[in-house]
């Protein structure tokens, strides 16, 4: 059985044995995505479930291996619930992974890794951020887990539309503006609409506070903060250089600030004023 | 400590880009991020086989300072960057 999804203009395909019927996976992601059959997906994974198996790894992660005499790239992934190898050749990825469960969380991790690898190929970045659409443009909110990203995008949105809940894909357009693509990751609310695209107006790095306050940020601080929230598997110089470039473009072309906010809608007044002044 | 005849180059672990006239550098293994000011950027852009002395002479001309001061600044800068793994000495050119 093959499931295909289109996320941020990339096609991902997952093949599972017929006896395994991951209805949870389909419901989890197809709440906001339409299946997208594609004979040549950008990323194709074959999954072999082995219930009861646990990967006895003490050092989990992703390793890259590019033999000097080969045009392919070999990527090994190890976690307590999955193990396997993905090969990149001629711009396409194919992999076989053993997994020990069919939980949506495992699938989300896999797809997030796939998207991250594809982003690196296209000079894009996968940013840990929620987003809302305001006046036709996208405002992103970054911060550590529990800081209020999802709360802002879902509960505290002030006549704005939820763009994304947990991850966005960013790319630099030819005119220098940053374009954001929504993703369905971690959106248990099902509120974020699928396949949304918009120009980034600003990024707020958030933390909860007793009162509302907006603080300006210098270039170095903005770039550091963006890179800290970027999910990138490759640590190569080329890949990191591209991420610096996107982060630098954001620092120059978007309104970036630190936002300390109370857990109610009153901070939007401040953000509206900042948006107007910064423009 | 760097000397004026040494040649340095960006480390293989240094990913960098020029953003708005400033050079942003990331050490890919240690996740360290440094932003260079105008002078640092000018020195960094000249780490292409020139000796430290030659770089200092150009910097002196560019920023209208004495060659002696420019050389001190360049040596301090390279020492700082070397200690953070962002530049490395060119062994062939330095007679190693």
Describe the structure.
- Chain A is an alpha+beta fold.
- Chain A is 26% helix and 36% strand.
- Chain A contains six helices and 16 strands.
- In chain A, the strands form two sheets. In chain A, strands 8, 9, 10, 11, 12, 13, 14, 15 and 16 form a nine-stranded mixed β-sheet that branches.
- In chain A, a hairpin with a 2-residue loop joins strand 1 and strand 2.
- In chain A, helix 4 crosses helix 5.
- Chain B has 96 residues and is of the alpha+beta class.
- Chain B contains three helices and five strands, in the order ββββαααβ.
- The mean pLDDT of chain B is 90.
- The chains are: A alpha+beta (279), B alpha+beta (96).
- Chains A and B meet through helix 4 and helix 5 of A and strand 2 and strand 3 of B.
Tell me the fraction of residues in β-strands of chain A, as a range: 35-45%
Give the oligomeric state of the chains in this entry, treating copies of one chain as homo and distinct chains as hetero: heterodimer
Task: Please provide the count of β strands of chain B.
Answer: 5
Give the integer mean of the pLDDT values of chain B: 90
The order of strands across the largest sheet of chain B is: 2-3-4
Q: Whole-number average pLDDT of chain A?
A: 85
Give helix and strand order of chain A, one letter per element, not per position.
EEHEEEEEHEEEHEEEEEHHEH
Give the % helix of chain A.
25-40%
Termini gap of chain B: 16 Å
Rg of chain B is 13 Å
Low-confidence stretches of chain B: none
The proportion of strand residues of chain B reads 15-25%
Largest sheet entry of chain B: 3 strands, antiparallel
Condensed summary:
With 279 residues, chain A is of the alpha+beta class. Chain A has six helices and 16 strands. Chain B is an alpha+beta fold and 96 residues long.
Features:
heterodimer, A: 279 residues, alpha+beta, nine-stranded mixed beta sheet, seven-stranded mixed beta sheet, 6 helices, globular, B: 96 residues, three-stranded antiparallel beta sheet, two-stranded antiparallel sheet
């Amino acid at each position: 059985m093959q499931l295909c999804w289109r996320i941020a203009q990339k096609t991902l395909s997952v093949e599972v044995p017929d006896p395994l019927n991951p209805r949870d996976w389909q419901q989890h992601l197809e709440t906001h995505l339409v299946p997208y059959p594609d004979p040549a997906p950008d990323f194709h994974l074959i999954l072999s479930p082995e219930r009861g198996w646990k990967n006895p790894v003490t050092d989990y992660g992703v390793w890259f291996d590019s033999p000097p005499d080969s045009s392919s790239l070999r990527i090994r992934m190890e976690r307590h619930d999955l193990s396997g190898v993905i090969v990149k050749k001629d711009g396409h990825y194919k992999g076989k992974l053993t997994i020990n469960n069919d939980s949506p969380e495992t699938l989300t991790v896999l797809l997030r890794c796939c998207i991250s690898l594809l982003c690196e190929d296209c000079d894009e970045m996968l940013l840990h951020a929620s987003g809302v659409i305001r006046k036709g443009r996208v405002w992103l909110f970054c911060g550590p887990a529990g800081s209020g990203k999802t709360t802002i995008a879902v509960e505290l949105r002030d006549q704005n539309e939820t763009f994304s809940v947990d991850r966005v894909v960013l790319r630099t357009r030819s005119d220098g503006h940053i374009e954001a693509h929504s993703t369905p990751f971690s959106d248990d609310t099902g509120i974020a609409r699928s396949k949304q695209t918009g120009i980034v107006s600003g990024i707020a790095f958030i933390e909860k506070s007793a009162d509302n306050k907006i603080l300006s940020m210098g270039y170095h601080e903005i770039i550091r903060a963006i890179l800290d929230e970027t999910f990138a598997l490759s640590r190569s110089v080329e890949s990191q250089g591209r991420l610096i470039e996107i982060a630098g473009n954001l620092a120059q072309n978007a309104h970036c600030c630190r936002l300390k906010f109370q857990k109610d809608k009153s901070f939007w007044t401040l953000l509206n004023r900042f948006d107007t002044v910064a423009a | 400590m760097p000397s004026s005849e040494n040649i340095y180059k960006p480390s293989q672990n240094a990913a960098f880009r020029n953003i708005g006239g400033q050079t942003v550098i990331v050490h890919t293994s240690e996740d360290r991020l440094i932003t260079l000011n105008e002078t640092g950027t000018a020195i960094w852009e000249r780490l292409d086989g020139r000796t430290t002395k030659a770089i200092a002479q150009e910097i002196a001309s560019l920023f209208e300072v004495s060659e002696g001061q420019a050389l001190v600044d360049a040596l301090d800068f390279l020492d700082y960057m070397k200690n953070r793994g962002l530049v490395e000495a060119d062994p062939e050119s330095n007679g190693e």
